[in-house]
Design a protein that fits this description.
Elements (H helix, E strand, L loop, with lengths): L1 H27 L7 H29 L14 H27 L12 H28 L9 H22 L1 H11 L24
Helix pairs in contact: 2-3, 2-5, 2-6, 3-4, 4-5
């Protein structure tokens, strides 16, 4: 019993020390720009960009591998050039947008405890899938535009398959964080911007505005 109590005490002290370290790291990484509202603003741009890339990518894939029962539009004459031009340009813009979003939410990586429940574990795993596929899609797309293939797999098949994984991961991510997204949208509609919690410290209380 004494040994078990000792182990429990050591575990509690270690957890408390890690909790304090986590709070110090998140405080050090705090920034007025690292807010839920800013994350949602950048997320809107990312969502629109990913949607454009997904739809234009599916259109290109179906033109190259048509389905017998699904006729694809081929007019106007330059439709394919327009859609693929949009796919490449918007896909390239995804990289700085992704880096901006990751910079905003980076302090959350140091939250303690790292896993609070089974649901939280699944949510963090879905975020890992989201980040990995979101980075891989535009990076491999840019390398494909440069015609440089430092891999052995088929770019077109892998790019198309990961696009569906990415769309699913985005759907899960939006569903999980919908309350925070709705709150940030309401802030855009007239709620004071400082009423939205920071991404680094979601428990922080909103500060009053300077009357000056």
């Amino acid at each position: 019993m004494a040994s078990r109590a000792t182990r429990g005490s050591v575990t509690e002290r270690l957890s408390s020390a890690l909790q304090q370290r986590s709070e110090r790291v998140q405080h050090a990484l705090g920034s007025p720009l690292r807010t839920t509202r800013m994350a949602v603003v950048v997320g809107r741009l990312l969502g629109a960009a990913f949607l454009i890339c997904f739809l234009t990518g599916v259109y290109s894939h179906l033109l190259q591998d048509p389905l017998p029962w699904l006729p694809m539009p081929t007019r106007p004459v330059h439709l394919y050039a327009w859609t693929q031009g949009a796919h490449v340009v918007v896909g390239s813009l995804l990289i700085p947008l992704l880096l901006a979003k990751l910079w905003i939410v980076f302090p959350k990586l140091f939250a303690w405890p790292p896993v609070r429940s089974v649901a939280h574990l699944l949510e963090r795993l879905s975020v890992a899938v989201l980040v990995a596929t979101a980075l891989m899609e535009p990076v491999t797309g840019v390398l494909n535009a440069l015609q440089w293939y430092p891999w052995d797999f088929s770019f077109r098949r892998t790019h198309f398959a990961l696009a569906w994984v990415l769309v699913g991961a985005i759907a899960v991510h939006v569903a999980v964080h919908l309350p925070a997204i709705v709150q940030a949208w309401r802030a855009d509609a007239g709620q004071p911007p400082d009423a939205v919690h920071t991404a680094a410290d979601p428990e922080a209380r909103p500060r009053r505005r300077d009357p000056r």
